[in-house]
Specification:
mainly alpha, 7 helices
């Protein structure tokens, strides 16, 4: 059952369920390359009441769920790679969480072997290995964060930004 949804901003920002959540068997979107590509109609949460929820909370949930979706697909990619080749992974490697939805596993196997995905995956791995100082601030551009520190009246916005994202 869906809760009451009010306001276009809420509807636009609503989410589906976190992959691996018990409710995800009720139609979680598995066959999408990224969270951003999932249509907003499919991102509506199950069993949550969104009456009078703030835009800030919706934004936080959307970012959290996008991150969970990305991590979930990353975990499935690691699982896929354990099988060595596409056919073995397809036939023997389907994880238990997708056992009753083989078509999703088939799609993921094809996705993980798509040249576009492979190229992006290799580039990401090289970039991660070359980093010497890792930040933990997400994908929001540093310029936006710096401007926010200035608007908050920080005397040393660059130092505050460094503290926020690296410490």
């Amino acid at each position: 059952m869906h809760g009451d949804l009010t306001g276009t901003a809420v509807i636009r920002s609503l989410l589906f369920t976190i992959p691996r959540h018990p409710e995800s068997r009720m139609g979680a979107p598995h066959q999408w390359e990224s969270w951003a590509e999932i249509p907003k109609e499919m991102k509506i949460l199950v069993n949550f009441d969104f009456k009078n929820i703030s835009l800030e909370v919706i934004t936080y949930l959307d970012e959290t769920f996008a991150n969970r979706y990305k991590n979930w697909k990353s975990d499935l990619h690691v699982h896929f790679k354990k099988w060595g080749d596409l056919e073995t992974a397809r036939l023997e490697g389907c994880p238990s969480e997708l056992a009753d939805r083989r078509e999703d596993w088939e799609w993921l196997c094809n996705h993980f072997t798509d040249p576009k995905f492979v190229k992006k995956s290799i580039a990401g791995k090289i970039a991660r290995e070359s980093k010497t100082l890792l930040h933990h601030s997400g994908s929001k551009p540093f310029s936006y964060r710096l401007e926010a520190r200035r608007e908050e009246g920080s005397k040393f916005p660059e130092i505050d930004l460094f503290k926020d994202v690296y410490v």
